[in-house]
Amino acid sequence: MIEGLRTSPVSMDQEAYESWKDYRTRRYLTDPNQLRVMVRNPFQLTQHERASLLDKISRNNFVVYEYDLCQDDIHAAFEECQIEPEKTKSQIIDQHVIGQHGLSQKNDRLCPVSNRGYAHICRQLGLVDSIPNPESGPNDVTLVREINQTRGLHELDFPSDSPTENVDFKRYIPYTNKPLGWHTDGYYNSDKHIVRSFILHCERPAIFGGANELVDPEMIYFQLRDANPQWAEALTQPDVMAIPANRVDNRTLRREFRGPVFHTDPNTGYLYTRYTQRKRNIRWKTDTLTEAALEAMHQLLEEDNQWKIRIRLTSGQGIICNNVIHRRTAFSDNNANSDNRNPGAETATSSKRCLHRIRFGNRLPSTGVYPPLD
Ligand SMILES: [Fe+2]
Known about the structure:
Layout: H1 14-27, E1 36-39, H2 47-60, E2 62-67, H3 71-81, H4 84-101, H5 114-124, E3 130-131, E4 142-144, E5 180-183, E6 197-204, E7 208-209, E8 212-215, H6 217-227, H7 229-234, E9 241-243, E10 246-248, E11 251-254, E12 257-259, E13 262-264, E14 271-273, E15 283-284, H8 288-302, E16 309-311, E17 317-321, E18 325-328, E19 331-332, E20 354-360
Parallel strand pairs: 1-2
Antiparallel strand pairs: 2-17, 3-20, 4-20, 5-18, 6-17, 6-20, 7-19, 8-16, 8-18, 9-12, 9-15, 10-11, 13-14
């Protein structure tokens, strides 16, 4: 049983609901600077660093870490640790990264050892159940960046249940530098591949733009339920969202999937949210109440909202979260003269924005987002 949880989040009585909401909103951090945790050695978190990361996650369901050491130091830190199993795993990650960059293994400048650290942070926080997709490699690492080649997938479009061989990737929108609307990762996945958490690590920021905005879905649930309890309830219908089957040449790459926006995850007991603002490849229920609920949720995400956090990651920073609702602004790697260049982008003038992502089937553990039991 989850600490403090008396009943399913979406069917709490008013008293329990008020207690849950009060607890969460009091502890939620609205200043991005309060969400940052400096990490001295990603290969070996200190007790304080680990506790701090988990504390922020218990407040917001997300946290921003930042490597607190330079490139030379991180090499030394890695060598110092000499943890053989982790070393093996990192080497696999490096091979994947090198493969995607088309680099030789000797090119340490573009494939620094610092890229190994984030996977170790995940492991030390208990994230071990990684989920692959057609663009990911060993250790299920995906490089999220603008791709000009035909074999590229939009991060929201891949057919999660499909075989990954012989798929015509031209059917899917390539990763672009365009804005990505509000969504949770893997909203189109069946319950077999449910994404409960992910890490997004920045190797290189864009020259301009490319900021992420995040909001804990529980905050949106509270606002929606307070505005009209029927709206919140409408979005718990098990067939409110339908992802149509994905068929190519008479082959079914993905069966139709239906699900709620908000529901209690039977595996964890926590509130789970599936959401996207995309209009393509999704069918919503069309009754009046559902449409009003979706419009209200859309407005909550679009308008000024105290619970939204905007973060522009720079090299060596990353986000770890329990799959919160997030979006990305457009970006450009064009090094034109402008005063609007992102902090940290000056070192990346000859390269493109590149983030690394690993999705997981398990939540971050020990995150008590419900009030303690009396
Ligand atoms: Fe995403």
